[in-house]
Amino acid sequence: MSERTFESPVFVRAAEGLIQEIACLEDACDFLHEWPKHRRGAIYETATRACHSAFDGLVPLKAARDAFAGFARSAKILEDVSMAMPWMTGAKAGETGGVAA
Q1: N or C: which end of the chain has fewer CB within 10 A?
Q2: How far, in Å, CA of 28 to CA of 71, rounded?
């Protein structure tokens, strides 16, 4: 695990039907850099500063992760993936997943 990898990833809705995992500081910075300029505000700026400061070793990685998660929450793109996604669970015992003949 890299020293810039988050203890737990942040999941964000990157587009309709697309959830993106932000697992490290680089992912967070890339996502923030691509965020539309017309949607940036004070919370975006705070998250960006926290991530850049973490890169420089001035703030803990957890603070940058929390700032990014706060930004995602305020932008209403934070996704709760605490429940397993259907494609992650696989077939139940006795199910083959195939088509009945």
Answers
A1: C
A2: 11
